[in-house]
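Quick entry between incubations.
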Amino acid sequence: MQIVEQQQDGVVVIAPAGRIDTTTVGVLDGRLTPLLAVARPRIVVDFSGVDYISSAGLRILLVAARRVQQAGGGLALCGMGDSVRQVFQLAGFVPLFTIRETRTEAVTQIAAP
Amino acid sequence: MSLRLSVQTAQGARTEYALEGPELVVGRATTATIVIQDSRVSRQHARFVLRDGGWWVEDLGARNPTLLNGVPVAGASMLQAGDRIGVGDAVLQLLEDMPAGQPRPPRPVPEAGTSAGTAPGRADAARMWTINEIHRALAAPLSLAELLDLILARCFDVLEPEEGLIMLRGRDGVLATAASRRRTPAAAPVAIPRRLVDEVMVKGRPALVLDATYDDRFASSVSMVTSGIRSVVAAPIVDAEGTLGLITLCSRIAVRQFAQPDLDMLVSIASAAALRVRNVALADELAARLVVEHELALAHDVQMDMLPRTMPSYSGLAVAAQLKPAHSVGGDLYDVLLDGDRLWFVVADVAGKSIAAALYMAIARTLFRATVRGAGDVAAVAGRMNQELARDNERLMFVTAAIGCLDLRSGEVAVVDAGHNPVLLAGPDGVGELPGIPKGPALGVMENVSYVAGAFALDPAMTLVLYTDGVPEARGTSGELFGDRRLRETIAARARDMPIDQLVAETMREVERFATGAPPDDDITVLALRYARP
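Done. Structure below.
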């Protein structure tokens, strides 16, 4: 799984591509872990290139959301296609995340004031 | 120039003898010229003979063979100044006499083809012997640790370093010490400079350092200087697939300075070892994987043992369920429990596939059984289970679950959806999602969640179907998913008059037929329920 990383208004935007499942989730975890180790992590995960996410992928995002909350930063998700959005909905996780349509909205949402 | 024989016993006593012809016998017997009181020394152990103007050493059939520079003496061998002769635990060294007060001249850098202090012909023979020895040893069944120890032991016999080190690349690609050996066990290990290691590993080329004091790569290595280690040889353990690691030998310059033949020798040993190291490492890895697979198999057994063997019976009740586990441990679960006039049921799926997931699943099932007895309603059961699962859940494991309670007196069903796939209701008019069930988060994610149940009267003509995401996500050979629509069609065609066991069995079979050949990625579970109030 490829992950493209960009900086935008003090926010790190990571865009994984392909399937996030038991086999590939380690790659996403490996990329998120150092980003979460900073003082006030501000992270956007752009799902535009993701066509599937398994429960193992959801778990990594839950861990990230909790860390970000504890560290006083921000995490937002964007660019979800129907199948990815459905996985979040099924698990009842939509209310647990900040989810926006576009990358710009997501970055604006969590950028430092 | 005359020669002396310096004798160092195992007890540490050191004595010097002038080497004078025509011969001199070493042994435990009092008749020997040099008497060594040591149980490992034979009565007549070895003989030094002056022949054709040169000194030779001859083994006299000692029980522990006489060693010349670590190699057993076969018959007689010619000696040179600097040679070390092992007799039992004692070491005899041949020294040249120096006029008193004159400093020892610096030792010349040995030329290629010769090793300091050894005659070419004999040295080559000894080296051949060692290489053969290693090849022979490599044929024996050894663990990786035994193999590496053996390689180092042979290097010590023939190359006489102060310290030897074998580093291997781990599965994570990181180079780590796999075996080491030191002549003085108490001495601190020598830190091999990173630059030298990189040079050997990256270029796959051996390295010879004649004197570390004058070598750039050791500029920042204090330990080399303080330990007195000066001369180093290093060879990559390399095969066709790449560099597996390296062997490094260090020596004190006063004792032994390495030369090109030593490096050639080490390269031969390393290449003989490479193939075997690769094979043994693969075998060890396989063994480790077998252990993990065995544990997964045990976890799988635990998972299957948790499933109810028989379904509760109650007049008018028809309930059936099947779980087909994935190859690796999944975390599906179903349970059905009759408590008085209430029938409790659950279909659940733990995130991920691992032993941790299987254990979490076992906890969820135990919680379900403990919570339903005497519980107020199904929403309270979900709340209690969630509270217990969410507590101290640092890893954020979670369980998606559809939990239901059928009141057998009234025929009313209440269902909670904790982040699970929708519950289906099949009847004469087709198959649809059970309406009016509020979505709650999966169990275990956060504490203090108030779940809300949806309730309805279960018509005797209707079939309630619960399943896990392994069903719609089963993958066909073309990569296509089984999907919700196919699931509903499968159920609709059978729900009307097929017995409940058969409905479940045929639905499972349909999913399996769709995913023919491909082992399931995930557990597949289906539970179906009908009830006609008496």
